[in-house]
Amino acid sequence: MVAQKTTKKPAPRTVRATRVAAKTTGDMGSYLRRIFGLMGAAVGVSAITAALTIFGGGIYWFINATGTGFSALYYVILFGGLGLSIWAQARAFSLKPTTAILLLGLYAILMGFAMTPLIWATLAVNPVSILMAFVIAAVMFACMALFGYKTVKDLSFLGTFLFIGMIGLILVGLASLIWPLGTGFATFVCAAGVLIFALFAAYDMQSLKRAYYAVGNDTQKNQLAVLGALHMYISFIAMFEYILSLLNRNN
């Protein structure tokens, strides 16, 4: 006799597990779309703010009468934006998602003002480099974020080094407002800035992916998405500014 083959039906547990996995994947997709949607909107707000400020004549609010330095208002905006970002990150899970989004928009406006002198100066000497810097930053950012999402290597060891590097960049940036940096050292700082914030994009992407499974409810996930958008926005804008400075070191 020929033995008849018997086909086993999938166990109900397997079917349920598949459905749960599919739902989780879908939720993760919505979560990531929310992060990058908010980040993209923030970048757009900064670009519009900078453009309106430059072409509307507001640039003269941020430079002194001699055109060789920054006005007091510029420093207020610069340090105000830094303080707002630190406060928003510390309060991320105690703010309503709508309030957090409004704060992200406010921060994007302040950053748009802060970028205005750099973009204004670049328009005078090499306007094409603005588009080049944006494209390079976007490609690098996308590659590093994808790496952070896909890699199985734990990137948490980078956290301390990246934080120290970021603090160093902030201190050097503050010092440069008083004492101009030499050309060689300024180039090194810009290159280091691109590297640090590119690694931040991968590090934050992996951290946000893991955090998604750790938080408990939808409200916390929405709060986490806004916090993630802020982190990714900061990394992208910093990369853009450092790349733009590198492209115009000789100018």
Give an overview of the whole structure.
The chain has 251 residues and is mainly α. It has one domain. The protein is built from seven helices and no strands. The protein has helices at 12-55, 72-90, 97-125, 128-150, 158-176, 183-214, 218-247. Helix 4 (128-150) packs parallel to helix 6 (183-214) and helix 6 (183-214) runs antiparallel to helix 7. The longest helix is centred in the N-terminal third of the chain and has 44 residues, at 12-55.
What is the element string, with H for helices and E for strands?
A: HHHHHHH
Principal-axis shape equals globular
Helix count? 7
Number of strands: 0
Rg over alpha carbons: 22 Å
Coarse structural class: mainly alpha
Instruction: Report the major sheet.
Output: none
Question: What is the average per-residue confidence, as pLDDT, rounded to a whole number?
Answer: 85
Counted up, domains total 1
Taken as a percent bin, the fraction of beta residues is under 5%
Spans of at least 5 consecutive residues with low confidence: 1-24
Helix content: over 70%
Terminal residue distance: 89 Å
